[in-house]
Design goal:
alpha/beta; Rossmann fold; 2 domains; nine-stranded mixed beta sheet; about 40% helix
Length: about 475
């Protein structure tokens, strides 16, 4: 899998492909003869699919979500653009029992199997890139670290790392609980236990209380949003969690100097995630570890966490605290004094296995993108991973870029294709091309995808240090 790849001229593949039952490995294309398709089901019940353009450039992209998303309105244009540039895809659907049996290591094994099927039904690719978003992004990082043998590089979009994401979400929710509960109880809205953030109902446990907990949190957030004190405290919680203040699709990022607009956005963002109390994908991660809590905050120093907050967030917090007449140090001390939460050793041991977490020990090049306004995964995880690879000494294999957009995995074709082409150039030449926002925007625009790339500098959104890196044994 070495040597430069000859890329075909870009062209648009417009036809809708029929689903073909090709368990025997035979290739056909009913609606578009330019594409060969194969599909089937792996022994564990995971569906797989392969598509190969007629003018294949020899590069295969492996993707966790290809079956599920290839023809979707959101991700479909990204796949279409890359197929039109000569890239082939082989990938999976998320297993129907994934909510209860999530295991990224098993997903990576299934991706390796569909790569073998590709070689059997087509030919061995000249080059293989792991490609994917969210859980597919974790599969990309873990493949590039611990399972790099079958691949040459990884394009990583909006990746989560389970212990990291749950710890970052815990910090913000913990701070909201510490800062909002007294007002919630004192105003007669309800009892302190209404605002639970751990020990929440699990899938299949028969506990009907989760909607009540979600409603209580919405009420507490709405009430906080109506007072200067509550708005300041919400902003502090977001800063301590290293969350983006901008999580609402279809909105514009306010000027960070416009304190009231930022406060309005933080309130709206808190309400946007109120249905995911404790963190997005909590059930997925806890169920994988037999329902055990994988995040805790024993020994965490929230004053130090505030010191690490993004400068843009510090500015908002300090302006709102002054307006409300609150003492910032005293508010942080309230968070530090709140009863702490222990993580399960069992859960941490489970997530410590290869393929289930990240260590920074890259073996092949990887480029990672994240959106500033991603509500499901804080963008700061990406910055934390960049710091980790520097510490490990694999930073020459790694590049990252921030996209100014909202939503989860809602990248434009100009952005994802620019990342793929930059990685291919790195593999062709042995050196990374320029990956500054200006360079990536120019690359994305030159691809003429019909979409505009939105790469931006981290600027005042860069945290001083990511608060929650976690590696096995660390």
């Amino acid at each position: 899998m070495n040597g430069p790849i000859t890329r075909r001229p870009a062209r648009r593949l417009c036809a809708t492909l029929s689903t073909l039952a090709l368990l025997s490995g035979a290739a056909a294309a009913q609606d578009d003869p330019a594409i060969r398709q194969h599909d089937g089901v792996l022994p564990d019940g995971t569906a797989w699919m392969i598509r190969v353009p007629g003018e294949w450039n020899g590069v295969l992209l492996r993707d966790l979500d290809f079956v599920s998303n290839a023809d979707s309105g959101n991700a479909g244009p990204r796949y279409d653009d890359l197929l039109g540039r000569g890239y082939a895809f082989a990938g999976l659907a998320r297993h129907p029992l994934r909510t209860w049996q999530y295991d990224p290591a098993r997903e990576i094994a299934n991706l390796e199997r569909v790569q073998e099927i590709f070689a059997e039904t087509e030919r061995a690719p000249d080059r293989v890139l792991q490609y994917g978003c969210s859980g597919g992004g974790l599969d990309g990082l873990a493949s590039a670290e611990a399972f790099a043998g079958p691949i040459d590089g990884a394009v990583v979009l909006a990746a989560h790392t389970p212990v990291w994401i749950m710890s970052s979400f815990l910090d913000g929710w913990f701070a909201m609980q510490a800062l909002l509960t007294d007002t919630y109880v004192g105003s007669g809205q309800g009892a302190a236990d209404d605002l639970r953030i751990v020990g929440l109902p699990n899938a299949g446990a028969g506990d009907p209380s989760l909607p009540d907990i979600q409603a209580a949190w919405r009420a507490a957030i709405e009430a906080a949003g109506e007072t200067p004190e509550g708005r300041a405290r919400l902003a502090l919680a977001f800063a301590l969690g290293q969350w983006s203040p901008w999580m609402v699709e279809g909105t514009e990022l306010p000027d960070a100097a416009d304190t009231q607009a930022m406060a309005d956005m933080i309130v709206a963002s808190a309400l946007r995630i109120a249905g995911n109390v404790g963190g997005s994908s909590r059930l997925l991660f806890e169920n994988a570890a037999s329902g055990q809590q994988l995040s805790g905050n024993e020994g965490m120093d929230y004053a130090a966490f505030y010191d690490n907050a993004a400068p843009a967030m510090k500015g908002v917090v300090e302006a709102l605290m002054a307006e409300a007449g609150l003492d910032l140090a005293a508010e942080i001390a309230r968070v530090d004094a709140h009863p702490r939460i222990a993580a399960s050793d069992y859960a941490l041991d489970w997530w410590a296995e290869p393929g289930r977490t990240t260590t920074g020990a890259l073996e092949v090049p990887a480029i990672r993108l994240h959106m500033l306004g991603d509500w499901a995964i804080p963008y700061t995880l990406m910055q934390g991973y960049g710091m980790l690879v520097e510490e490990v000494g694999t930073d020459d294999l790694y590049r990252q870029a921030l996209v100014q957009g909202t939503g989860h995995c809602e990248f434009m074709p100009a952005e994802s294709s620019a990342a793929v082409e930059a990685l291919v150039e790195r593999l062709d030449t042995g050196a990374w091309p320029e990956t500054t926002p200006e360079a990536l925007n120019a690359r994305g625009a030159a691809l003429e995808t019909g979409t505009e790339p939105r790469f931006v500098e981290m600027g005042a959104w860069a945290v001083e240090a990511y608060n929650r890196p976690w590696t096995p044994g660390g």
